[in-house]
Every structure is written in C-alpha cells, then in structure tokens.
C-alpha cells in the first residue's frame, strides 16, 4: 500500500506543467497582495465605515439626551424618524430607558434589533446620561457592511476573487504558448547528447507531458525518423503496437510509469518500419525533474529467429508426420506386390498349378507386381534426384503423338481391369514434334493417367491434347502452349486437398490412401518434372465430379510449322494399336550375336534368352576377347558391357569404330543416368540397355537391330513350372514361427527347375563368396577402385540371376567406394554378407524325394539355440555335384576346427578371425545356415580379442559339427564325427 505522500506525489505529477506553473505564479501574486494588505498598503473601508457610524451614534446620543432632558419627546421622535428616513444605512433607532422600556423609536426597531448586546458594525448603542447618571441608551441598527459572504469586511477580498482566476487563465495560456515555442533540444546539454548517442540501445527523454526532449541516434536509425521530427512531439503519437498485452489493454510503458510513479520493465512494443515489423524491449523510469527516461532494445532478430524456429519446428513436425504416413503407405505399397510375387512364385515353385493357362496368369501377375515395385523404386530415386538438384532433362525432338499413344497403350490394360474407358483425342491440331524430353514427359503423363485410373471407380479417363494461346499468368515467353489434359470422372478433391496434393509424401486424404493405395510421390514428381521441362502442372477439381490435371508446355514458333490434325492422329493411333498387337513377341533371325560381359551369369542368361529366341550367340569375357572374336567372324549384333577388366566396353567400342566396323552395338551397364547413356552413345554405341536386364526390352532391341522380318509368334517363356522342395503352403501365411524379415530365406526369381537357369544362378553363387572376400580385403587396404569394380559387378549380376536384393545394396557400396568412405563400405559389406547367408536354392527333386526341413536361421543368442537333434544339409544330397561340394566343406571344417582351437590357445586372433570369416560365408552357402550366426559372433569376438567369447562360440561350433548329418555319408567313407579338439 502506497504512503499518502506517494499518492499525493502521483496525483501532483498528473497535473500538466503549465498548470503547475500557473498555480505557482498566482500563489506568489496572492501572497504579495496579502503582505501588502497586512502592511496597510490597501485602504480599510470597513474601518472607515465603523468610524463614521460611531460618530453618528455619538451625535444622536447627545441630541437625544438634550431633548429627553427638556421633555421634548415628540421633537426627538420627529428627529429620529427624519434621520432613519434620510440615511438608508440606518434601519432603526430606539431610545430605551435604564429599566428597558422603549421611550421613543424610529423604524421597525423591535423587529430588526436582534442582538441587543452586539456592538459590531450593524448593532451599535450609546449610553445616554442625565444629571451625571445613565438614564438610558440610544440603539441604532445599521445595514450589514460585509457584502456577499462578508467579503467587504476585508479590503483585498474582491480583488483576489477577480484577480486569481483571471491570472490563472492568462498565465496558463501564456505558458502554453511559451512552452510550445521553446526548443526542447536544448533541454539536454551537448556533451550529454554525445554520450547518449554512443549507446547501442535506443534512448528517449520525455517530459512530464510525454513530449520528446531528446532521442539518441540509435533510436532514430531504428525508427528511420529524423530527430527533428521526434523532438517536441508526443511519443504516444507514433504507431506503436503493444505486443505484450491483450486487445483491451493499450497502456504504453511511459503512461503506465506515470500512473504508478515507478519504473516499468521489459515491455514489448512493435513498429512497422519500411515493411518490416521491428520488436523492442522497452524500459521506462521516472526521473527527477518530472520526466521519463525510456530505452528501446531492438530484439527484432531474436523474435524473427523465434518465429523462424517455430515455423521450422512446425514444418519439421509436418514433414515428420508426412514421412511417417509416407513410410506406412510405402510399406503397404511394397508389401502388396511383394506378397503377390512371393506368393505366386511359391505356388508355382511347389507345383500346385497344373494348368498352363493358370500358370501364365500367375506369371503375368508376378510380372505386373515386379513392374509396380520398379515404378515405386524409380519414383523414390527420381524424387531424391530432384531434391538433390541432380535431375537432368534432355532437349531433343519429342513426338507428342507417340508419347500419348505409348501411355494410352501401356495403361489400357489397367483401365480395362477397372471397367473404365480410356479415351485419347486431339482437341485441336498440335505440333508433330517439339523440343523437350520425351522420357520425362511420358513419365508425367503416365503418372497423371495412372492416378486417374486408380481414383476412378466408374466412368472414363480421357487424355486430350490441344494447342492454345499462352495465358499471361503462366509466365511463359512463348505465345502458344501445348496443353495436355487428363480428365477423370473419379472422386474429385476439395480446395484444401488441391492445395497440398503436389507436396512430397502427401495425399489428398488418408482415407483415400487406405482405399486406393499410393505413396504420395507421383504428383509431386510430376509437378517438378513439368517445371523442369519449362512448363507447369495445375489441377481443377470438385468433390464427386472428377478432376482435370493440366500439363502446359511452351511451344517454339518453329514447332508450329508442322502440325498434326485430330483426324490424322486418330488414324495413326489405330494403325499403331494394330501394329502393337501384331508385334507383341518377335522371333529373332538366326544371326550371330556376340554377348560381351565379364559376369559369367550375365553372359549365360542373355545367351539363353537369345538362343531360345532363335539367334546364334557367341560370348566374350572382356573387350579384348570381343575384338578378337569380331576379327575372326563379324556378328550381326554386339551386346557390350561397358565396365569390364582387361579392356572396358567404352574403349573396345571406340577401337571397333576406329577400325571401320559398323555393326550395331548395344551398351549394357548398371548405370542408368542420362549422362551414362550419352557417354555410351559418344563411344559409338547404337543403343542402351540398363541392368538388371529386362528380357522383353532385350528382345525388342535385338529384333530392331537384327532387322527381323519373321512373323509374330507366341514366344514360349523359359520359365517352366516345376516341382520345388516340399514346404507346406501354410507357411505363406503369417505366424509366430515365421522368421523375421531380416532372417527370411531369399529365393532366386529365376526358375530353378530349368537346368540352364539353375546353372547360371549356381555359377553366380560360386563366385559370390570370393568376390565378397575380395571386397573386404580391398576395403581394409583402402583399394576403393577394386571395391567399386566388384560392387558394380554385383549390382548387375545379382539382379540378372534373379537375386534383385543385391542390386540396391551393391549400388550403395558402389557410391561409398566413390566417396572413399571406409566405415560406410564396411557396414554395407556386412549387409551383403547377411544377404548371401540367407540365399536358399530350391532343390529339384524326384517325385519320391523329400527335402529335409530348413534349419532355423534365427539370429538369437547362444542360449536360445537348440543343441539337440541332427543338423541336416538343405542342399539336395541326391545330386552328386552338390554332394561333392558338401563333403568337401565338411572335410575342410574338420581340418580347420582343430586349427581354430590352436589359434585361440595361442591368442592368434587374426588367424582365428580369418577362419571364422570363411566359416560364416561357407556354412550357409553349402546348406548349413546354423553355422553362420555362431561363426559371425566368433568373428566379432576374435576381432575384439575376447578369449572367453571365442571359446564359447567355438564350443558351440564343435557341438554343431558333431550333430551334422551329411546325406549318404555312410556310403561315402567319411565319418560324421570330427576329431577331438581341446581348447
């Protein structure tokens, strides 16, 4: 609670300065008048009146005494009445005897004589004597002399009454004008101004009226207002924004300081300056002299950073939510086709399908699912390249009709499956050829039409192309644009959904995602590709009424010289449709084709496909062998791998072209970037085929370059349906006993019942352990060229033999080798070892043979492993070749186990790690996956030089060896029991 003095001071401070000065001056003047009055400088009118009235009373008393003594009472009566009548100041006169009787009177004496004892200016009495004794008294009643409220009793009263308000008004007016005309800048000394101008915070001195007396240089710079415009003005007149109070509370800091007569700290004010909102921390303190010192600390950057941080946090949260939703959608999108691939593959592998038509349907489903997975991977790769700014587009001749027809023909089957009409037409004539990137344009339209089919349950999807005038809002330099509309009769979208439909990982509605699927990448990629092509992608939609996605590309003036009419487009579309149906599968002519690849599995696969299509195939392992083979006999076509030892494909092609050979050369490479394609073409190649090899595309390119003229026929796929190892069909269903995703067996996608394909795959697996070992050695020696070379081989060869899981991991290893990142390369190599350990080759068995149950490959702890029961080999032991491989492994294992115990006893951990590494890779490869995990843990323990852990794993390995049963060992002469080992 504030003291009375503080309350008084607070109230006093609220009075304007000019009024306080005016009151002070009036007070001084009044004091001077009072002093003058007390000193007798003013005449005392009241005193003079009293004197005159006293004389009148004395005169009347003398006259009355004389007349009363002579008995002239009547004359006295007449005299008194005459006096009352003539003098208006006398109200009445009375002569009373000593005994109180009224002897004679004039006027209403008895009524007006109220205070007989009063001797003031209105009631006066004089004693009357006769013969020396008081006979009576003369009473005279006068008019009051004080005037209003008795002010006439004091001489200066009326003067002060008039003078005080008049002077107060005049002084106030005068001071107001005078103060306004004063220069407030003179209120602060020059040396003080210079000192205050050095402050890093804005500073203002205010008077009691909150007028600015001084503003330092920092504040004028912040507010961008000259000091001359601030000084003398009310500071509250500026456009301050109160940021730390509610709407109803608009008290500025200096106003609050004046109200409470105390300091105000840490108030937040804002002001818009040149389109930017500045934020200040304001402190205001009352100072002696009835003013205020106010400081302004600029915290704009801090506040902007807070806002930016909050926006970044919200954006990160939104991105995280979008990422989570995307991952969930992506998981669903990947698992769905994977389920189809694995499920139908397993059905075919088990021989559960006997009808060839049904088998073909299953194979088609597997192919479509694989194509869908490839689309997903391509979308992710495209988005990553776009985000990294590495997406390249070409500027080549683009035939619009071919692009549109290709999209329509590709997606016609999907539209038919959904009972939708897929219409294609031209609304106007369009350029026959424009300069653009046909691949990326096809990708954009493919995404749009695919989406339209997905989200349309009934009705139609239309692709409509037209040439229109460019809209000014589009910002195109050309006057005309090619407009391609994709119109559907699907579910449509709200404006809110349209606003976020082009964001990465976002979809219009999560409910539609669950119903229709999708990852939310297609439209984002399409929009960015459209912009990369110099155009734009927009959408118009209404809920329940379908959507229209519009691609607009600018057209050069020279492109409009050759136009295709709608009727010409329709004729061409029908003709190409008939040609596509007639040319689905082509049998190759019996011409020589040279396949050049350092990967034996790649050579054998391509040789197998081309041979069964009718071609005559020769092979070479490197560019030098290819040149020698071509010199001996010129082939009709060369399939050239571009990365090979001895002599790579680029150099070999350049030498062939330099020597005058004009035969077609198709480049084979694991790299699929635009720059790689151009590099191959610059070397002299005629075409380009990326790995993993697409068989259909391989046959199409081969047929094109071999100038095939044979009739279309039904190409018989080499993927015949056979009998696989006996596994219950119920294992396809999820259950608690199923292995985790990371431990699930990996089966090749090629038909292992076909001896040719099986031989190709087994050849790859025979070379895989040595390649992985070479990579590990190269990483340790930091020989990244070798790492890159082997990773490149694995990237192409793995997918070619039907082990696609190696392709993305090998690509990562290839990138790590380029970046020379040792730790990353080692981690990726570990993943490759894990993948190699999970490979299982299905056994082709006789009708009476049954495959032994697969060993549990879980990577549980040592305590969780089973030490009971026989350990069976998963390879077909009735096959002599496999039997010899397994027997050789068992012999080497029996030789190495004692050596490993000896190495442990002698603390030779490096040698122990080498043997553990061999066992980790070899055990699973020859059909004993239960050896992989303990060998891996032994490898880790030996690298950590932990003898106890090494001994535990080695004991378990010896125990596992004692339980191993090798097929027909009884007739082989090989004991199942290893030699006794002590460690």
Automatic annotation (TrEMBL):
It comes from the Bacteria. It catalyses: ATP + protein L-histidine = ADP + protein N-phospho-L-histidine. Its main location: membrane. Keywords: ATP-binding, Cell membrane, Kinase, Membrane, Nucleotide-binding, Phosphoprotein, Transferase, Transmembrane, Transmembrane helix, Two-component regulatory system. GO terms for cellular component: plasma membrane. The keyword Cell membrane applies. Residues 592-706 form the Response regulatory domain. The modification Phosphohistidine is found at residues 792, 917. It is a multi-pass membrane protein. Residues 843-853 have a biased composition (Low complexity). Residues 843-871 are annotated as: Disordered. One of its GO terms (molecular function) is ATP binding. This is histidine kinase. It comes from Neorhodopirellula pilleata.
């Amino acid at each position: 609670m504030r003291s009375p003095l503080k309350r008084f001071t607070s109230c006093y401070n609220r009075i304007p300065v000019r009024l306080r000065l005016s009151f002070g001056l009036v007070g001084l003047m009044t004091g001077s008048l009072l002093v003058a009055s007390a000193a007798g400088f003013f005449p005392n009118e009241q005193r003079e009146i009293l004197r005159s009235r006293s004389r009148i009373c004395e005169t009347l008393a003398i006259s009355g005494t004389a007349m009363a003594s002579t008995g002239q009472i009547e004359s006295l009566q007449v005299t008194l009445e005459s006096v009352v009548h003539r003098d208006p100041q006398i109200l009445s006169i009375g002569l009373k005897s000593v005994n109180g009787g009224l002897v004679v009177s004039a006027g209403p004496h008895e009524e007006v004589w109220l205070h007989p004892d009063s001797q003031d200016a209105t009631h006066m009495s004089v004693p009357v004597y006769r013969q020396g004794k008081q006979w009576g008294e003369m009473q005279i009643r006068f008019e009051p002399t004080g005037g209003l409220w008795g002010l006439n009793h004091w001489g200066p009263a009326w003067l002060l009454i008039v003078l005080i308000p008049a002077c107060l008004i005049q002084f106030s007016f005068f001071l107001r004008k005078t103060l306004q005309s004063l220069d407030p800048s003179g209120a602060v000394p020059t040396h003080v101004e210079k000192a205050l101008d050095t402050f890093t915070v804005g500073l203002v001195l205010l008077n009691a009226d909150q007028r600015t007396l001084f503003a330092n240089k920092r504040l004028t710079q912040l507010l961008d207002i000259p000091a001359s415009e601030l000084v003398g003005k009310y500071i509250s007149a500026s456009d301050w924004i109160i940021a730390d109070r509610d709407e109803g509370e608009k008290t500025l800091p200096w106003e609050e300081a004046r109200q409470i007569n105390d300091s105000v700290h840490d108030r937040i004010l804002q002001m818009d300056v040149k389109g930017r909102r500045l934020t200040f921390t304001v402190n205001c303190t009352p100072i002696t002299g009835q003013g205020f010192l106010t400081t302004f600390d600029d915290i704009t950057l801090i506040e902007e950073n807070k806002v930016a941080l909050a926006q970044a946090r919200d954006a990160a949260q939104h991105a995280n939510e979008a990422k989570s939703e995307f991952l969930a959608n992506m998981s669903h999108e990947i698992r769905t086709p994977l389920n189809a691939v694995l499920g139908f593959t397993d059905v075919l592998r088990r021989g559960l399908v006997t009808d060839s038509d049904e088998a073909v349907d299953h194979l088609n489903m597997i192919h479509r699912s694989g194509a869908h997975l490839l689309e997903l991977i391509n979308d992710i790769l495209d988005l990553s390249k776009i985000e990294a700014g590495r997406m390249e587009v070409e500027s080549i001749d683009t035939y619009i009709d071919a692009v549109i027809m290709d999209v329509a023909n590709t997606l016609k089957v999907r539209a038919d499956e959904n009972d939708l009409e897929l219409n294609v037409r031209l609304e106007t004539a369009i350029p026959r050829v424009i300069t653009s990137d046909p691949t990326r344009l096809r990708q954009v339209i493919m995404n749009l039409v695919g989406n339209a089919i997905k989200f349309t349950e009934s009705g139609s999807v239309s692709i409509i192309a037209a040439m229109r005038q460019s809209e000014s809002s589009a910002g195109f330099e050309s006057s005309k644009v090619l407009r391609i509309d994709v119109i559907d009769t699907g579910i449509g979208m709200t404006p809110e959904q349209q606003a976020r439909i082009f964001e990465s990982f976002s979809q219009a509605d999560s409910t539609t995602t669950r119903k229709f699927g999708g990852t939310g990448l297609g439209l984002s990629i399409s929009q960015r590709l459209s912009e990369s092509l110099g155009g734009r992608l927009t959408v118009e939609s209404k809920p329940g009424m379908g959507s229209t996605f519009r691609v607009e590309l600018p057209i050069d003036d020279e492109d409009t010289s050759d136009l295709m009419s709608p009727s010409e487009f329709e004729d061409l579309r029908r003709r190409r449709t008939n040609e596509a149906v007639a040319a689905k599968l082509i049998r190759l002519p019996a011409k020589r084709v040279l396949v050049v690849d350092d990967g034996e599995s790649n050579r054998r696969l391509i040789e197998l496909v081309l041979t069964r299509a009718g071609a005559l195939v020769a092979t070479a392992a490197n560019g030098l062998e290819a040149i020698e083979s071509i010199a001996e006999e010129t082939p009709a076509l060369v399939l050239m791998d571009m990365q090979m030892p001895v002599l790579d494909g680029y150099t070999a092609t350049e030498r062939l072209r330099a020597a005058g050979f004009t035969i077609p050369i198709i480049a084979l490479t694991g790299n699929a970037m635009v720059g790689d394609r151009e590099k191959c073409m610059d070397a002299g190649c005629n075409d380009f085929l990326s790995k993993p090899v697409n068989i259909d595309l391989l046959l199409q390119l081969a047929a094109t370059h071999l100038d095939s003229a044979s009739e279309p026929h039904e190409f018989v796929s080499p993927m015949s349906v056979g009998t696989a190892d006996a596994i219950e069909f119920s294992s396809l269903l999820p259950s608690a006993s199923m292995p985790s995703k990371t431990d699930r067996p990996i089966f090749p996608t090629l038909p292992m019942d076909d001896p040719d394909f099986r031989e190709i795959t087994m050849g790859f697996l025979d070379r895989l352990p040595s390649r992985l070992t070479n990579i590990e050695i190269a990483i340790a020696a930091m020989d990244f060229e070798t790492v890159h070379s082997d990773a490149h081989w694995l990237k192409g060869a793995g997918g070619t033999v039907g082990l696609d899981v190696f392709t993305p991991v090998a690509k990562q290893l290839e990138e790590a080798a380029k970046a020379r990142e040792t730790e990353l390369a080692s981690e990726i190599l570990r993943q490759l070892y894990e993948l190699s350990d999970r490979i299982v080759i299905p056994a082709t068995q006789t009708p009476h043979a049954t495959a032994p149950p697969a060993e549990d490959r879980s990577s549980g702890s040592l305590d969780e492993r089973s030490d009971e029961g026989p350990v069976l080999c998963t390879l077909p032991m009735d096959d002599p070749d496999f039997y010899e491989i397994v027997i050789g492994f068992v012999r080497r294992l029996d030789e190495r186990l004692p050596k490993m115990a000896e190495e442990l006893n002698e603390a030779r951990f490096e040698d122990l790690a080498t043997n553990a590494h061999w066992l980790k890779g070899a055990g699973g490869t020859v059909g004993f996956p239960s050896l992989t995990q303990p060998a891996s843990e032994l490898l880790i323990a030996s690298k950590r030089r932990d003898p106890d852990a090494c001994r535990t794993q080695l004991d378990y390995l010896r125990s596992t060896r004692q339980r191993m049963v090798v097929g027909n060992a009884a007739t082989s002469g090989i004991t199942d029991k290893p030699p006794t080992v002590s460690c």
